[in-house]
Specification:
By secondary structure, the chain is α+β, with helices and mostly antiparallel strands. It has 4 helices and 4 strands.
Length: 110
């Protein structure tokens, strides 16, 4: 739930996802850039530069929460998460990738 999301750090994929939700809800670019992979940070910085910070962060603000359906950690240091950003039954599933970088799980938006 976005209203109760907290910054939990990056120790596990689920911690990273909740921290991402917290960053989106609170419109905190410092936390947002902390939870993303370097390539996703570069992409998001470009979006913010082109659209302005408010417009770019408004695009993330629609996320009401998420429900994880599947989580698979792989030996190569990546994880695939099947989730629903709208946790209500019948919502469309999404797939996200995370990468373990220097012992922390980071979210890829690419």
């Amino acid at each position: 739930n976005a209203r109760t999301a907290r910054y939990l750090g990056l120790a596990t994929p689920t911690d990273t996802l909740e921290s991402f939700l917290f960053a989106a809800r609170s419109r905190d670019t410092n936390v947002l850039f902390r939870v993303l992979t370097p390539a996703s940070v570069a992409m998001m910085a470009g979006v913010i530069e082109n659209q302005g910070g408010d417009a770019a962060l408004n695009e993330l603000g629609w996320i009401p929460g998420f429900r994880i359906d599947t989580l698979t950690e792989k030996p190569d240091g990546t994880a695939e998460v099947g989730l629903r950003f709208d946790p209500r039954p019948g919502s469309d599933p999404q797939s996200l990738k995370l990468e373990r970088i220097n012992g922390e799980w980071r979210l890829s938006l690419l």
